[in-house]
Amino acid sequence: xxxxxxxxxxxxxxxxxxxxxxxxxxxxxxxSVTQGAISRQVRHLEDYLGRALFIRDKRALSLTDTGAEYYxxxxxxxxxxxxxxGEILQWQGDQQVTVVTTNAMASFWLLxxxxxxxxxxxxxxxxIMAVDSLRNIRHNEFDIAMFYCHTPPEDxxxxxxxxxxxxxxxxxxxxxxxxxxxxxxxxxxxTLLSLEVREDWLSWRDWFQGCGLPAPPESARxxxxxxxxxxxxxxxxxxxxxxAWANLVDDYLASGLLVQPVxxxxxxxxxxxxxxxxxxxxxxxxxxxxxxxxxxxxx
Length: 299
What we know:
Radius of gyration: 20 Å
Number of helices: 10
Largest sheet: 8 strands, mixed
Number of strands: 10
Strand content: 15-25%
């Protein structure tokens, strides 16, 4: 049976990089092509789909709603394809290291820094698996995991990487249209972009309570989304106020694509952990290089 419809595959790779960076230029640098080549590939994909995937503004590049949904599916498909290809090629030995983490951590923290590790250690084959839960991952399927935990699993070695620091963010345009949310007491008058997942992520109610602010009423406007990268994309699109985790959105804040409307920040007892299976009799040499690289960001 022929699989159809299939989009132009080269365009998918260009689109995923451009969507992840929200920049044709940075995507071009990553893929070692010209900015024009990325733009042409993305336009080719948009023509094939008959839908715009990006909002092209002189100041910033952002995804349309269609683009945000498609990006999530494309990235997962490419990660699965890369994983299956790696298994067929039988990556083995000390130079292959498998890192498993959440979609949010992979998208916002690990992938943007991946090229730095590659430059430092080109001999290491790093395999990234993006999953939403550690529950169904067996110890022999990964070397290192990066997960947010209130209490780390007892059967894994846990090393804290980052504290959980949470604060609200929105686009500059949304803040300009809703200047009242600069007052912490007025934050609940905005549209609250809410993450709906089974994992133990901090909720808006938890955040308001932890900051000593009145909890939003049940009548508060909400947009419920079950994927954190899409929550942040909705904030970038000016659709409301999102809870942001430091270290995940730092690049967006530095670029000005997202802003903090208030100074209120909640630091909890939870952590982003580096998790490892129990010590093996023959640890891989490449794992220690990954550990040292990850720990260099904790200072």
